[in-house]
Design a protein that fits this description.
By secondary structure, the chain is α/β, with parallel strands linked by helices. It has one domain: Rossmann fold (3-Layer(aba) Sandwich). The protein is built from 9 helices and 7 strands, in the order αββαβααβααβαβααβ.
C-alpha cells in the first residue's frame, strides 16, 4: 500500500495543548516537514519565548531554547554568531514579537542577522486571556477592548512585514496564512524558502503567518476561518512584502 501520511521525524508524538481550531499545530508540522526535507534536524536550534509557543519543546524533536518574553531575536543572534554552522530560528507570536520584543526584532533585522523568524500573527494575546495585541484589528473586541479597538486610544494595528521592509538587513519578508489548503501549501513554501536563505545565503528572513485563535476570538473554528478571509487578510495582505533583487535572480 502507498503511504499517504507519515509523522515528521522532527516532531514529537505528544498531544498538542492548543485549543480547537488553533493554527499553531499546523505551523509546527510545516516547520518539522521542512526541517526533515532539508535534512537539517541535527543542526537546527529553535528558540521560543513566553507565549503560546512556550512549551514548543514538547513538540519539536531537536534542540530548543526557551527565553524571556520578546528576547528570542537577541538569543538567536548570540547563538548564530557563536555557532554559525547551526540553523537557528525563532518561533514568536504577535504579542511577543510586535510588542515587548519590537526593539529586538527591528535591530536584528537592521543588522541582517542570519537567522530565520517564524512569526505567528493571530491578532490577540492567546496565552494570557485574549487581550488586545499590537496586531488586533480596528474594531476587534478583546478582553481589554470589549467595545472594539479604538484608533484614538490604541492606534493602528502594526504591520510587521511592512515595518521591517525599510531595513536593508531584512532580505526576505513574506506574509502567508493557514486558513485553507492552498494557503497552507504556500505557507510551507515560504517557511522552506526562509530556511534555505539562511543555509545558502546567510540572510535574515521572516515569514509572517496569519493564524486563527477561535477561543480568544469567541468564534467556532469554521467561523474563525471565515473571519480571517473577510477581516484579517484584507488588512494584512498576503504575499512577498520584500525580496532582495539578488535573491530573485
Amino acid at each position: 500500500m502507498k503511504i499517504k501520511f507519515r509523522q515528521p521525524k522532527s516532531m514529537r508524538d505528544n498531544p498538542l495543548h492548543y485549543g480547537p481550531g488553533c493554527g499553531h499545530g499546523i505551523v509546527h508540522r510545516l516547520i518539522c516537514e521542512v526541517i526533515d526535507e532539508l535534512e537539517i534536524r541535527e543542526k537546527t536550534i529553535g528558540i521560543c519565548p513566553v507565549g503560546c509557543s512556550v512549551v514548543a519543546y514538547d513538540y519539536f524533536d531537536f534542540d530548543m531554547v526557551e527565553v524571556a518574553h520578546g528576547r528570542a531575536p537577541a538569543v538567536a543572534t548570540g547563538i548564530k554568531r557563536v555557532r554559525p554552522d547551526r540553523i537557528v530560528f525563532t518561533y514568536q507570536g504577535d504579542g511577543d514579537l510586535a510588542s515587548i520584543g519590537t526593539a529586538e526584532i527591528v535591530h536584528a533585522a537592521s543588522r541582517g542577522e542570519a537567522f530565520t523568524v517564524i512569526f505567528v500573527n493571530n491578532a490577540t494575546y492567546g496565552m494570557t486571556g485574549g487581550q488586545m495585541a499590537p496586531t488586533t484589528l480596528i474594531g476587534q473586541k478583546t478582553t481589554t477592548t470589549p467595545f472594539g479597538r479604538d484608533i484614538k486610544e490604541a492606534g493602528y494595528p502594526l504591520k510587521v512585514c511592512e515595518l521591517l521592509s525599510s531595513l536593508p538587513g531584512a532580505a526576505y519578508l513574506e506574509r502567508v496564512a493557514v486558513n485553507s489548503p492552498v494557503n497552507i501549501r504556500r505557507t510551507k513554501r515560504a517557511i522552506k524558502k526562509c530556511f534555505t536563505l539562511q543555509i545558502e545565503r546567510e540572510k535574515f528572513a521572516l515569514v509572517e503567518i496569519l493564524s486563527p485563535c477561535p477561543i480568544c476570538w469567541k468564534l467556532s473554528p469554521l467561523d474563525s476561518l471565515k473571519w480571517m478571509e473577510e477581516k484579517m487578510i484584507p488588512y494584512y495582505p498576503l504575499g512577498v512584502i520584500k525580496e532582495e533583487a539578488s535573491l530573485s535572480v
